[in-house]
Amino acid sequence: MQISSVGNPLADRPDEWALYQPLVGKSMLELGNKKNTKAGLTYKDYFESVGYRHVSVDWNGEDGSLKRDLRQPLGLGTFDMVTNIGTTEHVDEQHSVWRNVCEAMRVGSVLLSTTPKPGNWFHHGWHHPHPEFYEKLAELNGLSIERLFTVGELKRKMVFCRAVRIEDRPFVMPEGLIHYNADATR
What we know:
The structure is a single chain. By secondary structure, the chain is of the alpha/beta class. The chain has a single domain (14-180), classed as 3-Layer(aba) Sandwich (Rossmann fold), CATH 3.40.50. It has helices at 14-20, 43-49, 94-103, 131-141; strands spanning 27-31, 35-36, 41-42, 53-58, 66-67, 79-85, 105-116, 127-129, 143-151, 158-165, 178-180.
């Protein structure tokens, strides 16, 4: 799919847009209700405009998202793509939110995730997964990492991960690989 600056909230976010490529299937679960405030565009609106059945879930129920607590089972079925673009770091129950991620995936589903790198973003989000968290999540839960990299400025680095589910397995939470950010204000 060609990137377009018209109506695409990712047009000014090339690293994030690259993580989405190639797009897979026609259904997407978005954790949170991602919006490019500068452009005034939601990810939901964009992906629906290009033909995706897009479901976003967030505690606030804004911007077309379903009002859901990510610490509770979602029960929404499986999706071709599951996205976590800066959401899981705000959820205090990490085991439950990552269980929801894996349970929303079937063999062939793709996970796209961006989270703050530990030691960065000092006042943003409580839980910052180490890059090794994604490696262990993949190993334990039947995923294969396609891309895992860090992007950003010195104090605002993000971990980017794209993984595909290659085997259906019961969820197992990697232990000890998520840094708790006690300085977070939200």
